[in-house]
Fold this sequence. Notes:
Strand content: under 5%
Helix content: over 70%
Order of helices and strands: HHHHHHHHHHHHHHHHHH
Largest sheet: none
Radius of gyration: 21 Å
Distance between the termini: 22 Å
Low-confidence stretches: none
Number of domains: 1
Amino acid sequence: MIESPLLRGGLTLVAGVLTGNVIGFARVALTAYLLGTHSRADSLAVAMGPIDTLNSVLINSLVFAFVPMLTARAGAERAALYGQLLRCFTTASAVIAAAVMLGAPLLMRVLAPGLDPAYFPLAVTNLRIFAFSTLAAGMGAIPCALLYTTRRFGPTAFYQAALNACTSIVALALWKVLGVYAFAAGYALGAWVQFAIMWWAVRGAGGSAEVGTGLRWTELLARPAFFVVYAAGLGANIVFTRAYATHAGPGMAAALDYCMRGVGVPLAILVTPIANSMLPEIARLRALERLRDALRLIDRTVAVAALVAVSGCAFALAFRTPAIRLLFEHGSFTPESTQLVAAVFLGLGPSMVGWSLIEITARALFAMDRPWPPVLAILIPVGLNVAITLKLRPGAAWLGVGSSVGLMAGFVALFGMLHVARKGWG
Length: 426
C-alpha cells in the first residue's frame, strides 16, 4: 500500500512539527516579551532569519539530493556512500560557516541596509554566533538523509523543537548576562543538540574502508545543485522582504519575523510531514517505473494541501489581531506592537497558500528526478516580489504582498508545467 508508509511517516513528522511549533510559540512570545518591536529586536531578526534560511537550504538540499542515492544502495555500498557524504559535507559546511563569520559585517550591510546604525554591531555579532549552527545543520543533514532512507522519521522530526527549546532556555538563563546574544547562543546550541540526536541514531553506519563508492567529491558537491538553486530562490523571497523592512521603519523587521511564526506553523504542518514522508515513497515508485502512481499521489496531495492552506489562511487573517494580542502583548510588546504586527500579517499571511503548494509540488518533482520545472518556476516569486515591492514601496499593511503574489504565481506556473510535461514522462 502506498498510503501506509506515507501515513505512518506523516504522523510521526506531524507530532514533531506540532511539538516544535508549540515550543516555537513560547520562544517567540519570550522574544516579544523581552524585545518587543524595538530596534534590538530588529538586530536579532535580521541575523536569525538569513541563518534559518541558509540552514534550511543546506538540510533540504542534501536530503532531497541523497535520499534517492542512498535508497538505491544497500549494505556495505550504502554505508560507504554515507561515510563519504559525511566527510564531504562536513568540510563544505565548515567552509560556509567560516565564510559567514568572516563576512558578517558585509552580509549585514546587504541583508539589513536600513538597520539603525546603533544596533548594527549587535546584528553582526548575532550573525557570527548563529553561524555556529550552520556547521551542525550541514553535518546533520547526512544522517537525516540516511534515516529518511530507512523511514526512521522520529529522530529527525524534532529538529525545530530542539532549536526552539534550547533558544528559550538559554535566553531565560543568560538574558541578564548576554542580553540579546543569549537568543543566538541558544539557537546554536539547539542545532548541535539535534545533530547529537541524529548522530546517536545512526551510530555504526560509517563507511567501510574496504568498499569504495566510485564517486568523486566534485560529483557529490554538484548533485544538490538544482535543489540549492531552488531553495535559495525560495528563501530569497523572505530575505528580500526582510531587507526592505529595515528601510520601512524601526521594528518592521521584527514585526515581519513575528508574522513568520503565523505563516510558518501551518506551512511546517503541511509541508514537512507531507513532503518528507512522500520523498522515499516517490523515489520507490520512480525506481519501479510506476510514474502514473507517483503523479496521482502528487495530484491528490496537492488538492488536500490546497484545501487546508486556503482554510487556514482565511482563519488566520480573520483572527490575527486578537491572536497576536493574546500570544504576544506582554512586557516590551505593547498595544502599538500588536497593531504593527497585525498590519504586516495582512500582506504576508496569504503567502502560506502559494508557499506550501509550491514546496510540496517541487519536492515531489525533485524526488522524481525532474529538477528543471521547480528551478524555473522559483524564479517567478522572487522576480514578482522585487518588482511589486519596489513599485509600491509599501508600509506595514502591504509589506508582504509581493511575496504572497509571487509565491502563488510560482505555484500556478509549476503545476502547469507538471501537467504539460507529464505525458512525455510516461
